[in-house]
Specification:
This protein is of the alpha+beta class. The chain contains four helices and eleven strands. The protein starts with 18 loop residues before the first strand and ends with a helix.
């Protein structure tokens, strides 16, 4: 019997998640979150919402993200959400969500598809250079999809001084470079 000892690797390809400070801004790769997409099946929205409420899984309104206990969620499209949980608890988040929602929803594992970058500090000067996101109106608890450096990214406003970016894992180095360049330009 062969025993495998697999471990997650950072998307930026080094042994530890990368952390870069540029002036007052800190850009850090984060690996502690499991992601799964959840889509209500036709005619089952009310059932999915009831199951989610019973399980303590937030299903936010358009343009929003919500954290509730171990779970967090953000809106993707009508009747579709990205659900987050701690990687240590929900390593196979898709299997967990499938067990909870059964045939009422379609679930897809998303954890390895995205690089998660946490950006902290004074955000506005940097993000004005990156994308068309109005940080005055994009308040904490907001979530959206936008283009950064020709890449479709999800932007989650965690706090006044903290944004989480989810970008395609296959383009992690390009997105990371764009963030560093924008921070250097701003500061």
């Amino acid at each position: 019997m062969c025993e495998h000892r697999l471990r997650a690797r950072p998307a930026l390809g080094i042994d530890q998640p990368d952390v870069v400070a540029v002036g007052p801004v800190r850009i850090a790769e984060s690996m502690g979150t499991a992601l799964g997409s959840l889509a209500s099946r036709r005619g089952r929205d009310d059932e999915v919402r009831r199951i989610a409420a019973d399980a303590g899984i937030p299903l936010p309104a358009p343009g929003q993200m919500v954290r509730q206990g171990d779970w967090a969620g953000f809106w993707l499209a009508p009747s579709q959400w990205m659900i987050e949980g701690p990687q240590d608890t929900y390593e196979d988040i898709a299997a967990v969500l499938k067990t909870i929602f059964g045939e009422s929803a379609s679930v897809t594992e998303q954890t390895d598809a995205w690089v998660r970058l946490e950006v902290t500090g004074p955000l506005r000067p940097m993000f004005e250079r990156l994308c068309n996101l109005d940080l005055v109106r994009f308040v904490p608890g907001s979530a959206t999809r936008t283009i950064i450096e020709h890449l479709g990214c999800y932007v989650l406003r965690q706090a006044d001084d903290r944004i989480t970016l989810l970008g395609p894992r296959s383009s992690a180095a390009s997105l990371h470079h764009a963030l560093i360049s924008a921070a250097r330009s701003a500061f």
